[in-house]
């Protein structure tokens, strides 16, 4: 397999097909239709990767709306065209990936030591799990492919590397080997794996939550400063009245002039703080627009909504009660998944879906109280409220749940 990717490339769904290059300082440029492989980079006579460390490819034909793939340089020194920096470039890029699709040519007959070492490093250092794609599947018989797959599975298990699945893949006979992987007891479906991951990320609201938290801190500090200058003006006015009551009524006196000068200065400082507050709100609005643009959707999570949720620290007790109430919803869905797994005859796909749901619910149940985690749970509630109410109103389901719970207590 010839290494073609020389620069890490992010691939995602876009409105038009375009290749963009990104510089170290954040600049970007649309690139011509060239093969940015090792041979091309070598012909330039300088290290393009130092200037342009990564590229982005968008295409409307990309089938997964919410997934971004990172195509990394080949790392294996035995590959022709390999460069010394490719391994580090790959590792650096893969730090940002949640899962890894690892291509192994079936012609190798198994997983090589260099693959194993690299995957072990990623798993031990970053906790990255891998889905193995056995490529060039059309070069072997299907029974031979299953033998190779079993050997790879055993090798990974023996070396303590968790893997998410393995599939057979052929670029020339894609549909045939897709169906083979789905029917085989040895292989797994790559398409089902990717479809399960193809979910809208909560990152947008998480980022906005961080942004609004900073906004709240700055707003609080600015308002405190403005309030302090207002108090200074009131104190000066009080001093002025005290002096007048004691007979000091010469408004041309140096003391009165000083009081007037200080009062004007504090008034100007107060006005400046109010202007800073207006500018802060404008900057935050621009940041939100930028975040929405990155995710290509306008989030309903606005600064006003954040303030409603976190307006006053005195509301902390109410927020905590809401946090615990939503956790009850999470616990209900976790228990419902357990009930489904225990009570019904489910297909393998349904079993996996309930297990995934249960794993996610368990992670949420482990969250400690904080405004950020409350925001995450509120998003969960918003997505599941309708199903939750329908489930609670399903008399048959509730009776079965009660019977199931009683059976567990015996």
From TrEMBL:
Protein name: ATPase
Originating organism: Helicobacter pylori (Campylobacter pylori)
Matches recorded under InterPro entries: P-loop_NTPase
């Amino acid at each position: 397999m010839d290494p073609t990717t020389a620069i890490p490339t992010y691939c995602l769904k876009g409105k038009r097909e375009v290749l963009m290059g990104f510089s170290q300082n954040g600049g970007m440029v649309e690139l011509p239709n060239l093969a940015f492989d090792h041979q091309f980079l070598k012909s330039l006579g300088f290290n393009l990767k130092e200037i342009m460390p990564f590229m982005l490819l968008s295409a409307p034909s990309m089938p997964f709306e919410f997934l971004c793939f990172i195509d990394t340089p080949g790392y294996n020194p035995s590959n022709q065209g390999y460069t010394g920096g490719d391994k580090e470039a790959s590792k650096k890029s893969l730090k940002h990936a949640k899962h890894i699709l690892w291509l192994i040519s079936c012609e190798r007959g198994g997983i090589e030591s260099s693959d194993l070492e690299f995957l072990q490093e990623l798993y031990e250092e970053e906790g990255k799990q891998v889905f193995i794609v056995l490529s060039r599947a059309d070069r072997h018989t299907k029974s031979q492919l299953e033998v190779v797959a079993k050997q790879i599975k055993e090798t990974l298990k023996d070396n303590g590397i968790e893997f998410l699945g393995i599939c057979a893949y052929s670029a020339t006979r894609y549909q045939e080997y897709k169906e083979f992987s789905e029917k085989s007891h040895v292989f797994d479906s790559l398409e089902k794996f990717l479809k399960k991951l193809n979910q809208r990320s909560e990152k947008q609201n998480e980022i906005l939550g961080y942004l609004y938290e900073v906004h709240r801190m700055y707003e609080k500090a600015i308002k405190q400063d403005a309030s302090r200058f207002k108090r200074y003006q009131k104190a000066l006015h009080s001093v002025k009245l005290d002096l007048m009551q004691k007979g000091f009524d010469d408004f041309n006196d140096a003391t009165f002039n000083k009081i007037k000068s200080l009062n004007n200065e504090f008034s100007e400082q107060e006005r400046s703080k109010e202007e800073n507050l207006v500018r802060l709100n404008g900057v935050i609005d621009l940041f939100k627009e930028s975040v929405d643009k990155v995710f290509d959707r306008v989030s309903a999570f606005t600064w006003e909504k954040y303030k409603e949720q976190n307006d006053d620290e005195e509301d902390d007790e109410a927020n905590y009660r809401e946090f615990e109430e939503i956790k009850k919803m999470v616990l209900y869905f976790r228990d419902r998944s357990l009930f489904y797994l225990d009570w019904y005859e489910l297909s393998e796909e349904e079993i996996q879906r309930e297990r995934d749901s249960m794993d996610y619910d368990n992670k949420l149940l482990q969250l400690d109280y904080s405004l950020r985690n409350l925001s995450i749970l509120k998003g969960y509630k918003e997505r599941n409220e309708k199903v939750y109410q329908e489930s609670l109103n399903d008399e048959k389901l509730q009776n079965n749940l009660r019977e199931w719970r009683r059976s567990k207590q015996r």
